[in-house]
Design brief:
10-stranded mixed beta sheet, 11 helices, 9-stranded antiparallel beta sheet, Beta-galactosidase, Chain A, domain 5, 557 residues, 33% helix, alpha+beta, single chain
């Protein structure tokens, strides 16, 4: 396998990989959700065995506005604007992240709009049919306030709700918001002042309709990102399920200690994170609800037994925010870093994590993500100089042998098998390794694909400018300047590449490669094209140097 064939193989593999990812995105395109709210058949759970939650917990029809609910309160912190009604978080806006379609309004994760229905819910199921609060009814604000604001200088904000049962059992639920944090602590304290013991199981779930397809798709530079449910258990680690597979793969039922459940989307996610060591069961369901089919993932448990005159408590974290690597790491939750879904394949996920760590380190010094990408390329190319040296030395040796190869080709005529055997014998006698020039290209393939996933998932690069005309490194170049530069760089590199002995068909294919890559990169995220252009420029300079170092002319046949 010579250098040219390997380059063509690498190029077509990369094209095929990216086309496959685009095909997967189109294949997974969700249907448009119905615009009318559909009443559900599931009843509010009032009588169930411990730990049992009905397959389709009831969904109340969405109000015109989440804040219109009589028990709803609004909460404003430095990073979250939310609407709660005790059993549900009905609305959540992220002021620090403007919407891609309209910069004037922030990203909204939770919403009661039937077309974008998405809420976080939590309630209780009591044993023996005893009364208990559900996510639909029971909790009321514990005080007169209907609006809360994180005070200047305060580190936390507590928003209390309470349910008072007829049997002397009460549940006091407190949402605790922290400054600068997207993790909301939800703490339930169960007090039993009655005469009989009470036993109940808490459930926490996320429910939404199928999310709409991103506008513009591939042509706008938007890349495919996983959308669906994900969960983590200490025994089976990270697992996920796309929305289209909810019904086909069957209902999930997994007993877990600790872990977490989440719904993922591009750049953002929501998750319920039980306390470490809590026993629960992870489940999925697809009931009919607001806006049509609701895709539900829940954590059921733990179960608390509260004797008369006693109380017990349980708490969990509700993450509502971006896939910020630093903030996720600060939660110190096992496996939560996988919510930044760099890839389904562990190799690419690990490699993408390393690339991001280097990129973030560079950004700490440079302060610009675009220049940090350029710095990342410089580091990678520097580390690969020894491999490049081997590559060009091998190319030079093979170039010197081209007259002898031409003789062998003439001697054996159309007998390609004999020609290949004679050529390999020639390489053996001359101590030339035809694979010597392959390693740098083979290394570039996983790096490029890992970078593709890293740039598509890193919310830190969302709306991040580079300079001049590049205002968003995760969107395509609006004026196609970088793709045009890439075409020029690839063309110049071809001019420097020796073509002695190259098959005419291969030569024609090589001539078309700059155009193919130019068209393909025209719709890639500009940050990815910036990486490839910088890599191409450094490769061009490297090739110019090594051709002069090893560029002695081949001997005549």
């Amino acid at each position: 396998m010579n250098q040219t064939r390997l380059f063509l193989l690498f190029a077509w593999l990369m094209v095929a990989s990216l086309l496959w990812m685009e095909w997967a995105r189109e294949k997974a395109a969700p249907p448009v959700a119905p615009t009318a709210a559909v009443a559900t058949t599931g009843a509010v759970p009032t009588a169930a065995a411990p730990g049992a939650v009905p397959t389709a917990p009831g969904q109340a029809p969405a109000a015109a506005s989440a804040a219109a609910s009589p028990s709803a309160v609004t909460v404003h912190t430095d990073v979250l604007d939310a609407v709660l009604d005790g059993g549900q978080m009905l609305q959540a806006d992220l002021p620090a992240y403007p919407n891609l379609d309209a910069d004037a309004r922030p990203v909204r994760l939770f919403s009661t709009d039937p077309q974008h229905y998405f809420v976080a819910q939590s309630g209780w199921v009591a044993a023996g049919g005893a009364p208990s609060p559900t996510h639909l009814a029971g909790f009321v604000p514990a005080g007169p306030a209907r609006s809360y604001q994180l005070a200047q200088g305060a580190s936390t904000l507590e928003v209390p709700f309470v349910w008072q049962g007829p049997n002397g059992v009460s549940v006091r639920r407190t949402y605790v918001f922290a400054r600068g944090s997207y993790a909301v602590q939800v703490r339930d304290v169960v007090a039993n002042t009655g005469a009989a013991p009470w036993q109940g199981t808490v459930y926490r779930q996320l429910s939404r309709v199928m999310p709409p397809e991103p506008k513009g798709g591939f042509m706008s530079g938007q890349v495919f990102a996983f959308q669906g449910a994900a969960w983590y258990s200490p025994q089976d680690k990270y697992e996920k399920r796309a929305y289209k597979d909810f019904e086909d793969d069957g209902a999930l039922s997994k007993k877990v200690q600790g872990g977490w459940v989440a719904l993922l989307q591009h750049h953002f996610f929501t998750a319920w994170i039980p306390q470490r060591g809590d026993s629960s069961t992870f489940e999925t369901a697809t009931p009919r609800g607001v806006g049509g089919t609701n895709y539900v993932i829940r954590s059921v448990g733990p179960t608390l037994a509260v004797a008369p005159g006693q109380q017990a408590s349980t708490q969990a974290s509700l993450w509502v925010g971006p896939k910020s690597v630093e903030q996720i790491a600060a939660q110190n939750v096992q496996g939560l870093e996988r919510a930044v879904d760099f890839s389904s394949y562990s190799l690419f996920a690990t490699l993408a994590g390393w690339l991001y760590a280097i990129l973030a380190w560079l950004h700490g010094f440079i302060g610009n993500w675009g220049w940090s990408i350029i710095g990342l390329v410089v580091i990678i190319k520097t580390l690969m100089i020894p491999l490049a040296n081997v590559q060009y030395r091998s190319m030079a040796k093979m170039r010197r042998l081209q007259p002898k190869v031409a003789q062998l080709k003439e001697r054996h005529g159309e007998d390609r098998q004999q020609f290949q055997m004679a050529m390999m014998e020639l390489y053996r006698k001359e101590k030339v390794n035809p694979m010597g020039g392959c390693l740098p290209l083979l290394v570039q393939m996983p790096i490029f694909l890992a970078l593709y996933w890293m740039l598509s998932e890193s919310v830190e690069l969302r709306h991040a400018p580079w300079m001049g005309w590049i205002h968003d490194l995760t969107a395509r170049d609006p004026y196609f300047v970088l793709p045009a530069i890439n075409v020029a760089v690839m063309w110049l590199t071809q001019k420097l590449t020796p073509t002695t002995g190259m098959d005419p068909m291969q030569a024609k294919m090589m001539q078309f490669m700059p155009i193919v890559f130019g068209v393909m990169f025209a719709f890639f995220p500009s940050g990815l094209v910036l990486y490839w252009v910088t890599n191409g420029l450094l490769t061009l300079a490297q090739q110019w140097y090594f051709l002069r170092k090893y560029g002695d002319a081949p001997k005549k046949a």
